Amino acid sequence: MSAILIFKNQPALPPWKLCARRSFRIGRHPENDFILEESWISRRHAMIQQESNNHYHIIDLGSANGTFVNGNRIVTPTPLRAGDIIALGKTELIFDQQSAPKLTPTSSLQNLGDETIAFVNQRRVTILVCDIHRYTELSEAVGNEKISTLLRHWNKKATEIIRHHRGQVDKFIGDAVLAFWLQDESAHLEQVLTAAIRLNRMTAVLGEKLSFPWPLTTGVAINSGTIMLGNLGVDGSRDFTMVGDAVNVAFRLESQTKAESREIILGQQTYDQLTRHHEIFTPQTFILKGKNNKVQGYSTTFKKLANAITSVGKQ
């Protein structure tokens, strides 16, 4: 059964009808299915996907200001239910679907033929999430022009660093980057750790060059696990991305770098894969949103990690 999106604060506007196709793009660019012409909206902001069983998911496409469902910023494909409120920039939309199907354990994204998507590739990866600390405060202090300059340079240099260390950028989300390394290579973890150090140094140097009012620092979370990696979207308009609990945990751990004043936090599986440097990490349990049990993590500083890696190189 098709669904509609109702403008919450402007109910007189015609609703957007989710019918006649499987995938609907939302953004500022004229090529999107639904266009929102406001500065807070990215050119390709979000996508809503219909499955064969009439379930709908919404996916953020790496937008600068995020996509929110019921007040929560989403980082992976998120199921929609009747009455859910979707916030994109300053626009709020109510998802409405009469006689919505019940969610079942098999209602995950699946291969539906040429018209839709398939997460067909299950891979073991190590995920890195890095963001700039005090970003909101910084935006208020220096204004939009300097923040735009920072992000333009930061995104470019972060991509160069990650690729140099054999990683892949999944997406940029505002002031954060999500990247991953396939675990096919035995030495991949050393590359991830070195990339984290370089991202922090690069951020500090950019802050100095742009004369920001305080030294810029980052928080980094590194987590390992099994994810589904594949193309999201209809033919001719696909987005390569990854989904899975390991991704969610990586983002939640990164948020703890701010909440707990930590610089780098490793997840349990990442820590277990270390072949050296265990002594510089401090174990700590974290209460993460969406997790019923406490999650074990291991924190350290960029200085300790850099010294440890440098000392290994001198041996």
Structural class: alpha+beta
Which regions contain 5 or more consecutive residues with pLDDT less than 50? 100-120, 234-238
What percentage of the residues does DSSP assign to strands (E)? 25-35%
Distance between the termini: 65 Å
Query: Would you state the CATH class of the largest domain?
Result: Alpha Beta
Structure description:
The protein is of the alpha+beta class and 315 residues long. It has two domains: 3-97, Tumour Suppressor Smad4; 120-311, 2-Layer Sandwich (Alpha-Beta Plaits), CATH 3.30.70. 27% of the residues lie in helices and 35% in strands. It has six helices and 19 strands. The protein has helices at residues 135-142, 144-164, 188-209, 245-259, 268-273, 302-314, and strands at residues 3-7, 16-18, 23-27, 34-35, 46-50, 56-60, 67-69, 72-73, 78-80, 85-88, 91-96, 118-132, 168-173, 176-182, 218-234, 237-243, 264-267, 282-286, 295-300. Strands 12, 13, 14, 15, 16, 17, 18 and 19 form an eight-stranded mixed sheet that branches. It has a six-stranded antiparallel sheet with strand order 2-1-11-10-7-8, with no helix packed on it. The chain has a five-stranded mixed sheet with strand order 4-3-5-6-9, with no helix packed on it. Strand 7 (67-69) and strand 8 (72-73) form a beta hairpin. The N and C termini lie far apart (65 Å). Mean pLDDT is 85; it is low at 100-120 and 234-238.
